[in-house]
Design goal:
TIM Barrel, binds iron/sulfur cluster, alpha/beta, 8 strands, binds zinc ion
């Protein structure tokens, strides 16, 4: 059964002004220098495998070709090269990422993320001839997580899924299901396209993970939270194994100019807490929901006393997959639910 797109809170806001791909690109700053023969970064982090069960995941930020799409909030282009990914470069990057010892205190990674700042199923970004070698390199991992645009789910993912030893999971950006924001988002995709991509992945035995934007331009924090919860519910109904709430961040040019003119405010820590609690209470039980903690320390509405305990609570909720009482500290900050 296809999930239905739920309505917004009924505000009269008609949606932010849409810019063309060319205008979005014009708003960008310079790229960072990237060597296609070395990963941009490698780290280990804890992922949630099931409620209450954390697992160590090696995260490899691969250097390669820029995505041909131009989503309004995307900043991944900053660490990409301008031409196609050279053949042979990605296997070398994965090899060097696997040579790094596990992070102290976390244990040996059992999952791996291969994030290439573009679409893993695009041969310009991931040369088809390199897939067998990459698959061999990651053979020992229980789960391999890659990303692609929902409309680019294709047979290369089925081939890759069949060649790795573990389970393949594909991260898909849903972002929002509110129709007012789709033109602005410039993702060239509808929620139906997203649901169709999930169907296709399920048919080939591949798990889906959804990325949902927390924080949209032109609306208040409460409505942003509500829309993130709506999108999380939609993704869960579409069959995703995991929904990750990603606070919208600046840094790509366009979002910064919205922020500079008062048309976008990054969500506060209290709103992020409310979104995680709301999404956890709203999605079907078998779908995991987490809040991406990568930008937590930069969020507004926290002080030096409450930042760490509030972050720790979010990490505990991510792992436990259940609501936990808010930090009781009386520091003067407004805490979320
Ligand atoms: S599809 Fe992904 S990588 Fe490409 S522009 Fe959109 S968010 Fe960025
Ligand atoms: Zn505080």
């Amino acid at each position: 059964m296809r999930p239905s797109v739920v309505g917004s809170s009924g505000s009269l806001f008609a949606g932010p002004v849409m810019l063309s791909s060319a205008a979005l690109r014009q708003a960008r700053g310079p790229k960072e220098p990237v060597d296609p023969w070395r990963p941009v970064a490698v780290c280990d982090e804890e992922e949630v495998a099931a409620p209450g069960r954390g697992i160590v995941c090696r995260v490899v930020f691969l250097a390669g070709a820029e995505c041909s799409l131009t989503c309004a909030m995307c900043d991944l282009w900053r660490q990409t090269i301008s031409g196609p990914t050279p053949a042979g470069a990605l296997p070398l990057q994965v090899e060097s990422a696997l040579a790094i010892p596990p992070a102290p205190g976390l244990g040996v990674p059992q999952w791996i993320k291969l994030y290439n700042a573009s679409n893993f199923s695009d041969p310009r970004a991931v040369p088809t001839a390199d897939l067998p070698r990459i698959a061999t390199l990651v053979h020992g991992f229980e789960r391999v997580i890659v990303e692609t645009h929902p409309r680019l789910v294709n047979d290369s993912l089925a081939l890759f899924a069949g060649a790795i030893g573990g389970r393949l999971e594909v991260g898909l950006g849903l972002e929002t299901v509110d129709a007012r924001f789709l033109p602005w988002l410039n993702k060239q995709m509808t929620p139906d396209d997203f649901a169709a991509a999930c169907d296709r992945l399920r048919a080939i035995g591949v798990d889906a993970r959804a990325f949902v934007l927390l924080g949209l331009p032109g609306i208040c924090a409460e409505e942003s939270v509500e829309l993130a919860v709506d999108a999380a519910r939609f993704a869960a109904q579409a069959g995703c194994r995991h929904v990750s709430l990603i606070p919208t961040r600046g840094g790509n040019g366009h979002v910064d100019s919205l922020a500079a003119t008062g048309r976008f405010t990054p969500v506060s820590a209290a709103a992020a807490e409310a979104a995680l609690a709301g999404a956890m209470g709203s999605v079907v039980a078998r779908c995991l929901v987490t809040l991406d903690p990568w930008g937590w320390d930069q969020m507004s509405g926290q002080c030096d006393d409450c930042r760490a305990p509030r972050r720790a609570r979010i990490e505990r909720m991510n792992r436990a997959q259940q609501w936990l009482p808010p930090c009781p500290l009386q520091c003067g900050c407004r805490h979320g639910v």
